[in-house]
Write a sequence for this structure.
């Protein structure tokens, strides 16, 4: 018996491992420095909280939290039962599975994968290749789990997110997005918030600021250039909104992220 499997589109985005590890956190240990790469933490034991995108999550063992590049966040270990987690850091050259748009995922099936990361540390060679394989194994696990839950995103919300991604550099407003979708603005805002937890305006603002943060670091750009790239015509307003979102000024953000060597 012969099995022959072929794929219609053999192309996958390039994934570049940045690092991995485990950490036993002290009570109240907290991190809030954005990074220019993906971070996935898997909670092996203990509890803590993640605050990002206007939401606070209370996290338990067998859950993972996903932080996208330049995503404003704070995660904090519990004072009573501080967590132990494993983490993977990586860059990607293209779009990743949609499941990674989720902030928090419960996935007990991924526990053996994260526990086995310690084995890679003992390799004398091939560490990055082994970690890349683990990353793709994790993606496959999460995609199969998502398929089993049969969750389908609202098509209007999906189209709205794509419209924002394509036009965030322009001076678009929520009314423009609703018009593009052919929806009443109030109804569109209701549907969008119900699925994402954010109003369309808050999502648009967050998207623009995080793209500006990425531009500041990847291009070593000035504040004015980053503001224009993100669709802000007023640099004063941009700087004010940026500091409100990230807690520091755009120029300080660029300096901090490029020089950051803190724990994870």
């Amino acid at each position: 018996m012969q099995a022959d499997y072929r794929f219609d589109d053999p192309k996958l985005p390039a994934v570049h491992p940045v690092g991995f590890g485990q950490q036993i956190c002290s009570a109240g240990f907290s991190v809030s420095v954005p990074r220019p790469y993906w971070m996935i933490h898997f909670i092996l034991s203990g509890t803590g909280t993640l605050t990002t995108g206007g939401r606070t999550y209370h996290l338990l063992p067998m859950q993972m939290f996903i932080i996208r590049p330049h995503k404003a966040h704070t995660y904090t270990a519990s004072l009573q039962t501080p967590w132990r987690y494993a983490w993977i850091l990586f860059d990607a050259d293209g779009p990743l599975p949609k499941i990674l748009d989720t902030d928090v995922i419960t996935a007990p099936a991924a526990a053996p994968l994260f526990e086995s990361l310690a084995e890679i540390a003992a390799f004398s060679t091939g560490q990055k290749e082994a970690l890349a394989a683990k990353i793709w194994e994790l993606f496959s696990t999460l995609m199969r789990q998502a398929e089993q839950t049969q969750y389908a995103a609202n098509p209007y919300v999906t189209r709205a997110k794509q419209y924002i991604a394509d036009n965030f550099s322009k001076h678009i407003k929520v009314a423009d997005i609703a018009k593009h979708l052919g929806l009443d603005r109030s109804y569109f805002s209701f549907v969008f918030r119900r699925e994402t937890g954010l109003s369309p305006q808050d999502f648009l603002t967050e998207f623009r600021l995080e793209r500006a943060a990425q531009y500041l670091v990847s291009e070593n750009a000035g504040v004015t250039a980053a503001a224009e790239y993100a669709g802000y015509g007023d640099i004063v307003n941009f700087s004010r909104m940026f500091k409100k979102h990230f807690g520091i000024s755009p120029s300080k953000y660029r300096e901090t992220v490029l020089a950051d060597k803190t724990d994870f």
